[in-house]
Amino acid sequence: MASSSISAAGQPGRIRILNQPSSNPSGPVIYWMFRDQRVKDNWALIHSIEQANKRNVPLAIAFNLFDQFLGAKARQLGFMLRGLKQLHKKIQEDFDIPFFLFQGEAVDTIPKFLKECGASLLVMDFSPLREVRSWKDTICEKVSDSVSIHEVDAHNVVPVWVASNKLEYSAKTLRSKINKLLPEYLIDFPTLGPVKKKWDKPTCVVDWENLIAQVVRKGAEVPELEWCIPGEVAAMEVLMGLEKGFLTRRLRNYNTERNNPMKPKSLSGLSPYLHFGQISAQRCALEACKVRTVSPQSVDAFLEELIVRRELADNFCYYQPHYDSIQGAWEWARKTLMDHVSDKREHLYTKEQLEKAQTADHLWNASQMELVHHGKMHGFMRMYWAKKILEWTSGPVEALAISIYLNDKYHIDGRDPNGYVGCMWSICGVHDQGWKERPVFGKIRYMNYAGCKRKFDVDGYTAYIKRLVGETKKRKAEILLTNKAKELCP
């Protein structure tokens, strides 16, 4: 439920009150940050400061680091921690707000911290994923009845529970609802003010370098990426940079070239930052609206992907508990897939063969190598990639499990509603319609090599990926040699 008396700068719909005690204790406000890892343009932080000042109490930020959450490796955790290191410095230097980093299970660390500091209010980010929702429910049960608990959707432009109160069938059914609410929610952010009462309890010292080194070493199976620089400053550079910024230099071609895997620079490049909350989707939308006259079709296409499609994914994961299972598909899709589960496949590959890109399809192999070594597969190729997994495995259950496993392990923006819905769209027809019936796929939309060849230069793409992978391997070898030399030299 939301309350008009609770406001994040006049946007009460963003906040849900999960616990409201009758008394008003005077302890500090704690903001448990997890999905929206930024200082700027963060409604949850704005609300936390607002509430701390209203109650005349201090504020602290808490973050809980899980051990390889949903299979995250060095690639994802290194990126996240390097961004948090910058956030820690900024929030302390600019706002004098302490930052606490905990390791272990949030259902233990967060309630314990609330009790130790005598908190009066817990503010938490929103996520539609079942693991996070389970933690939230357990924490709500564990904390004292005297602690208020507020949940803030700082990730979506229109909060998921405001945009719709049910599972939407497609982008078409959600689009009009979101567009109707944009005048109310797509507004500029207030200036972040100081917390009036300072924290007077012990603070947390984080050995970032040692922590990052440990995490990177432990998850070394999927190494970090060089091309993607973490943090809020880097995110704004990708959006607005004078040399290579998306809105300043690359926007014009977005509408016509975004579905061409040979034109990766036409894409925004923002998904890693949006996934880790290092930039606000609302900020991206606001800045895009300012330049709409320059390229209206590209801006409209970008806003469709940024707002409608992203929020459709959150809607699906929030209202469909089986968001990563064939049980989450519509009845027509489940039926057609099971009707064709015993159809003969031209090829059958194991998970290990697929992971190592050992198939007879050189285009698919290139997309898998792009994923493994570059950490980001082109959106068009993601669809082809997942559909071929359906074609080459025992059935939709195995295909979905393998596609999600590979997506979450290697994509820098894996373990995300967009990723789950992308796999579900490709394999289970979610947010799509039935098409002409054919073997294996049934009525699920079909994609093949010949269709890709008609759309873009397939040989050019495979050659480009071969060069990309070669350069990545070469740089990795050079780094290993340099590190070895450092170890040998006293």
From TrEMBL:
Reaction(s) catalysed (UniProt annotation): cyclobutadipyrimidine (in DNA) = 2 pyrimidine residues (in DNA)
Role description: Involved in repair of UV radiation-induced DNA damage. Catalyzes the light-dependent monomerization (300-600 nm) of cyclobutylpyrimidine dimers (CPDs), which are formed between adjacent bases on the same DNA strand upon exposure to ultraviolet radiation. Required for plant survival in the presence of UV-B light. Not involved in the repair of (6-4) photoproducts.
Requisite cofactors: FAD
Enzyme class: lyase
One Pfam family this sequence matches: DNA_photolyase
Domain Photolyase/cryptochrome alpha/beta residue range list: 27-160
Any Gene Ontology biological process: UV protection
SUPFAM superfamilies: Cryptochrome/photolyase FAD-binding domain, Cryptochrome/photolyase, N-terminal domain
EC number(s) recorded for this UniProt protein: 4.1.99.3
Keywords: DNA damage, DNA repair, DNA-binding, FAD, Flavoprotein, Lyase
Protein name as it appears in the record: Deoxyribodipyrimidine photo-lyase
Keyword Flavoprotein among UniProt keywords: yes
InterPro entries in alphabetical order: Crypto/Photolyase_FAD-like_sf, Crypto/Photolyase_N_sf, DNA_photolyase_2, DNA_photolyase_2_CS, DNA_photolyase_N, Photolyase_Class-2, Rossmann-like_a/b/a_fold
GO molecular function, a single term: DNA binding
Keyword hit for DNA damage: yes
PROSITE patterns: DNA_PHOTOLYASES_2_1, DNA_PHOTOLYASES_2_2, PHR_CRY_ALPHA_BETA
Family the UniProt entry places it in: Belongs to the DNA photolyase class-2 family.
Source organism of this protein record: Lithospermum erythrorhizon
